[in-house]
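Example 3.
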Amino acid sequence: MAKRYWLVKSDPATFGLAELAASPERTTRWDGVRNYQARNHLRDDMQPGDGVLFYHSQSDPPAVVATAKVVGAGYPDPTQFDRKSPGHEPRAKPDQPVWYAVDIQLDEVLGRPVTLSEMRDEAGLRQMVLLRKGSRLSVQPVSAAEWRIVIALGSRRPGAGKGKVRAES
DNA sequence: GCCAACGTTGGC
DNA sequence: GCCAACGTTGGC
């Protein structure tokens, strides 16, 4: 299957880029997701090697701050079986899990954060799930074209111009 | 099956 | 802190 791209939201007050970077092997289990649409992506769609935009929500400013990669297929989220976890799921049985997780590994910290408002200004990102009104999906697909644009914006030096990425002399 | 009420997300 | 939008729950 072709490589796919994703965006995951994280609240840096809980677990952000700093925590991801400090994780063993810069890898963490992306668990605690309790939304069926996001669950389906975790369980059915995300594959090792897929690219992940790591987004800080509820932050000032909200922004994509890094890339990561999926390092394994989805598997049952163990926190659903833990009675003491806020993610505990009474309906789940070990052989009938409800929620899923994937492991992701930090790839590269962007040269600079790509902010939400900046993405809104980019014509090529107009269809991005993140930018849709009322979008709350915490694990969402990103097209290859959207990925390229965000990466290009994030690798540019600050103040290198507005609008389209262009060659410099 | 409908829909009001509720809890949560997340930008501002 | 506010509030719009969303997803889920539960009464009927």
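Residues 35-36, 133-136 of chain A lie near DNA strand C (CB under 10 Å from a C1'). Chain A has a mean pLDDT of 92.
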